[in-house]
Each structure stands twice: as C-alpha cells, then as structure tokens.
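Sample 3 of the quickstart, ligand tryptophan:
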Amino acid sequence: MSNKKRVLTGITTSGTPHIGNLAGAILPAIKASQNKSTESFLFLADYHSLIKNNDPELTHTSSFEIAACWLACGLDPKEVIFYRQSDIPHIMELTWVLGCLTSKGLMNRSHAYKAAVAENKKEDPDKGITMGLFNYPVLMAADILMFNADMVPVGQDQKQHVEMTRDIALRFNHHYGEVFTVPDVSIEEDAGTLPGIDGRKMSKSYKNVIPIFLNKDDLRKRIMKIKTDSKEPGEPKEIDESSIFNIYRAFATEKLTKELTNKYKEGIAWGEAKELLFELLEEKISPLRKNYEVLIDDRTGLEKILLSGAEKALDVSTPIINKVRQAVGIRGFGD
Ligand code: TRP
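Result:
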C-alpha cells in the first residue's frame, strides 16, 4: 500500500465537451493527475448520468465520447486509475448501505434538489423529481468513500456534495467503527470559465459553446460567429469585454497574449482577431482531434483501457467493501 495522498474525482458522462471545459477542467485535471506525490483516481460517473438522461443510446454514446475525449486530451491511464463507475458494482452496494444511515433531512438541504423543487413553484413540489435526483449525494458519497479518497477536487457547485460525504463518513465511523477516510474538498478555481460565442458564459444550456472536436472548417465557422461590438477597423478595442480576447488568452502564451493586447490597442479588425483565434485554437486542438479520431474508431481498444482501470479500482474497493459488510453485520454464517 502506498502512503500517497489519494485524490479522486468524477466526470459526469453527459453533453459534448467544449473548449471552456477543456481550459477550465480537463487540462488542469490532467495536469494535476501527473503529480507524482498523489495517487489519482478519475472515473466516468455513468450511473450519475441516468438522473438527467433516459435515452439509452445517448447514455452509451456520451460515456464513450467522454472517455475518448479525456484520453485524447492527454490523460495517461498508466499514471491514473481511470475507470467507469458502472464497472465497480461495489459502489452501488455501498450506496444502499450509506443511504440507510443518511438522514432524509440532510438530503433535503441539497442545492440541486432544492433548485428542482423551487422550479415547480406552486405546483406539486415533487413534480418531476426522481429518487435518483434526491439520492444523488449518496451515490456521490459512495463514489468517494469506496476508495477512501483523501482529497476530492471539484468545482464550487459540487462543494456541498463533498461536505455531505464527510457527514456521512463521520456518521458511519461513529456508529460502526473507523472504516472510512473523511475526505477533504479542494475547490478548483473558476479560472477557466470562458465566454461563449454570444458573450455569456460558455455553457451548453446557452447553446453558445465551441465544441472541442469540431473539424477544422466547422471550428473556423463557429469562431467567425463570435459576437463583437460594432467598432471599426482602426478603432482601439477593449480586451476585457472581448470574448475573442478572453478565449485567446486561455490558450495562448503570455507573449502571444501581450501581442494581441497591443493589436487591440492599435485597432485590429474583428475579422483579423477571429482569424488569429482560429489559428491558435486549430494549432492546439488539431493534435487532440487526431488522437480523438483514432480512439473513437477503436472501441475495443478503449474498452480494454477502461477494463484495465476497473481491475485496478476493484483491487482497492474489494477490501473496503468487505470491511463495510463486516462492520454492518452482513457476512456469511460461517464467518
Ligand atoms: N457530481 C459531479 C459533477 O457533476 C461528478 C461526480 C460524481 C463526482 N461522483 C463524483 C465528483 C465523486 C467528485 C467525486 O461534476
């Protein structure tokens, strides 16, 4: 057993990853996973995705595309334990056990659940709310506790879920004896939030995203659609308010960013600024796109990678679930 700090995080397998995700989440997480002093667990939270999506084809494809995306962007499955939640049935088993000691009141306080209730306004507050949504934090607690993670890096929106995980772990340990590590949360800075093509935050709910894996022509077309103000060529332009600039900065070196800043002062034409952004993104993305195309065409290879990750993950989860069963009194009559 290594004494390395165990860092674990999950990726919800829904949606099409965009360059905001790339700059803000994917690349920083891959970089963090290369830290030799930690043991990194990264998994595809495919059972979580069922909460929002009940189209089997989409569930399957998203999981596959997101796996290919992370590997294409540089995740090294030799350095990181990279697995699919659904390959580790112990997580589902633990979800039940934890659910049996989690108070309903704690779950009532979940932001995601409360937001769904609030949307119902004066109608039936339970309308459209599934037990999946309600139990989401318990499943997430099981994801984390199943591997005795020390640290869970997440975005601000997931902080409460990790705090609930801590509550649940403490409660279990108090009642049944020390089994679980009480995990710390580390909040990822929001440095990576990029504007979308309409200037609002890049988000799939605004339909303003630039997907990572567009082909070259479509990437160019998408960039040409970025909204600008009506300043003429030759007029100095503001960098802070410019989506083009802010996206550029997220991918450029300091030197290039400075150069573009000067060009803005000198009154670069919007068309030219877009062209520079396109060239930069194409340079950054084309190697990833090549990797992605290879991976997406080799489902068997991808499956192999995930199953080998699952094997490593099971080596960790098996002794822990055995401990849990013992602790709660679920064991063979001969034991
Ligand atoms: N709920 C997280 C999100 O939407 C994904 C996730 C699932 C997760 N299980 C996790 C993150 C366990 C950290 C640890 O982003």
